[in-house]
Amino acid sequence: MKIEEIEIILQPLREQLRNHALYSELKSVTDIQIFMESHVYAVWDFMSLLKALQINLTCTSLPWKPVKNTNTARFINEIVLEEETDVNELGVLKSHYEMYLDAMVEVGADTTKITDFLNGLHSLDTALSAIENADLNDAVKSFLNFTFKTIRTQEPHKIAAAFTFGREDLIPDMFLKIVAQAGKDAYPKLEYYLRRHIELDGDDHGPLSLKMIQELCGDDETKWHDVLECSEKALQQRINLWNHIATAIQKNKEITV
Fold this sequence. Notes:
The N and C termini lie far apart (51 Å). Strands 1-2 form a two-stranded antiparallel ribbon. α3 (29-57) packs antiparallel against α9 (156-164), α8 packs antiparallel against α12 (221-256) and α9 packs parallel to α12 (221-256). It has helices at 3-18, 22-25, 29-57, 70-84, 96-107, 112-119, 127-133, 138-152, 156-164, 171-181, 188-217, 221-256, and strands at 86-87, 93-94. The protein is an all-alpha fold. The mean pLDDT is 90.
């Protein structure tokens, strides 16, 4: 099995995401607020997957020793640089997660829930119990549970699969259309975040992520099957999250009519 076969098998799930009803529900700033209040957990846990890859694929312990695959290590370190310490629209160094929080504040979305949740997290060992006990909807809990169970395997090819597949390719375009309707420069933080997201994921991160999986699996068929299984689960978790958000937006519209 190779990456091309994986992509063919995943195509139906990816098409479900590309054609999801959620996109047609995103028509107003209020819709964006509801979306962001759940999606922010996916923005955050992406960073946890990334740091897990950095721990496993680069040397983060002492004494330093050269890593097995310098190409993969370089790729991971580059993504960490851009995701954890990028430059925002004002030239200030911030993580993409922090930029997303700033954009949430800008559009009037609530950031207290995600902030309180992170304040209650203290270690990887207690992450799953913290998720279970948090005041979160079931779709977000399931999404986060899958992420942290994958991280706890400490198997880089599985973590890389969850990291690589199930990206929300269409969301930036949808958001930009709504932002444009709101008027020029109405939401500069959100617009900057979205354009940066498109630039990095499309030009650099996406293709390099696929190459990373190829290098991690090599000719090991068991690893390739693990990647397929993990990718299918990651995509299904994303679809389930989209289902929940679409329903929440629809219910809100019924209440406000």
